[in-house]
Write a structure and sequence with these properties.
- Keywords: Hydrolase, Metal-binding.
- This protein is α/β, with parallel strands linked by helices and about 325 residues long.
- About 35% of the residues lie in helices and about 15% in strands.
- The chain has helices at about 45-50, 60-70, 90-100, 125-135, 160-175, 190-200, 220-225, 245-255, 285-295, 300-315; strands at about 35-40, 45, 55, 75-80, 100-105, 145-155, 180-185, 210, 230-235, 265.
- The protein has an eight-stranded parallel sheet with strand order 1-4-5-6-7-8-9-10. The protein has a two-stranded antiparallel ribbon with strand order 2-3.
- Strand 8, helix 7 (about 220-225) and strand 9 (about 230-235) form a beta-alpha-beta unit.
- The radius of gyration is 18 Å and the shape is globular.
């Protein structure tokens, strides 16, 4: 399979959109099955990163993997791609129709290098209004409505002034809609600062999930976040080039010993064509077919696994 070429179908432009109004687009989690809480199904960061591999848009390959996930018990995927990351609402609606996986779409602004050119012209309320419209009205003229404010991010070791504007706007959008907030931390930095900032803007920790907490030895951040009542995502599972899964399991064991596993959620953060199984990557099923067996071997029980993959997401994303 040619990862770098354009031979595979790359969008849903030629697919009928007439069915979209018939697709179930509510923002509720199907609590009967597992939820991947931080994934990308259509994302395009190829321009910024200078690589076509960073344009994840191969519909048939992605649909096949989602169908397989359904057989493994996955019922929901929280899709973290927002407006300026290459989001494609029609593509997501097609996937829901063809795979029966419920997709929770996102609204927000990513982090500083990915803000649009006109960002400086936007006030905090205008940014919030954009988010609220995508939650209450729909995304890009489709029936798809956002169900989470995400992924809003911070830079490596800092939250820039513009990123703080997004966090302030996210707080306003949360207060107006009740949608939870899920964040991006660059290489697991600034998680505690993100929580402090959102709390200062009036968001309760129970509505905040701090993302990418598993990219380094990070218990000095993870435990205080959990003790403060926030949610923590181990959502880069399988990205062993950043941090080994054995380290992720060791951190999860310590979290479990602290009795805080009921605020932890899991995912893989697939973003590239090369991450797909048909292109030689781990594939979306890695979490269930490789990592979960590793957890069981390390002494976790099925109840704890169900808690992190099914029960915790159902609580965090419950309709409010």
């Amino acid at each position: 399979m040619n990862v770098g070429g354009d031979t595979l179908q790359s969008s849903s432009d030629n697919r009928s959109v007439n069915h979209h109004l018939a697709v179930k687009t509510n923002r509720c989690i199907d609590a009967s099955g597992y939820t991947y809480v931080h994934e990308h199904l259509h994302i395009d960061l190829s321009g910024a990163k200078g690589s076509l591999d960073c344009r994840l848009d191969q519909y048939d390959l992605i649909a096949d993997e989602l169908r397989h996930l359904y057989t493994l018990g996955v019922r929901n995927i929280v899709e973290m791609t927002n407006r300026y990351m290459g989001r494609n609402a029609a593509f997501l609606l097609d996937l829901m129709r063809d795979t029966h996986i419920n997709i929770i779409a996102s609204t927000g602004y990513y982090k500083q290098p990915f803000f649009p050119a006109h960002f400086n012209e936007l006030c905090i309320q205008a940014i919030a209004d954009n988010m609220i419209a995508e939650i209450e009205t729909g995304i890009d003229g489709t029936a798809l409505k956002a169900g989470v404010i995400a992924e809003i991010g911070s830079s490596l070791g800092q939250i820039t002034e513009d990123e703080q504007k997004v966090f302030a706007a996210a707080a306003l959008a949360h207060q107006a809609t009740g949608c939870p907030i899920s964040t991006h931390t660059t290489l697991s930095t600034m998680g505690r600062e993100q929580l402090a900032l959102l709390k200062r803007f009036g968001v309760s920790p129970e509505h905040i999930a701090i993302g990418h907490c598993d990219l380094r030895d990070n218990l000095d951040t993870i435990i205080p976040l959990l003790e403060a009542g926030a949610w923590v995502q181990f959502d880069t599972i399988g990205k062993n080039n950043y941090y080994p899964d054995s380290g992720r399991i060791a951190m999860l064991q310590k979290v479990a010993k602290c009795g805080l596993l009921d605020q932890v959620m899991l995912s893989q953060d697939i973003t590239r064509r090369s991450h797909l199984k048909s292109n030689g990557g781990n594939g979306f099923d890695y979490l269930l077919t490789v990592f979960v067996p590793m957890l069981l071997e390390a002494g976790f029980c099925q109840t704890q696994i169900n808690q992190m993959l099914r029960d915790n997401p159902a609580r965090f994303f419950q309709h409010r």
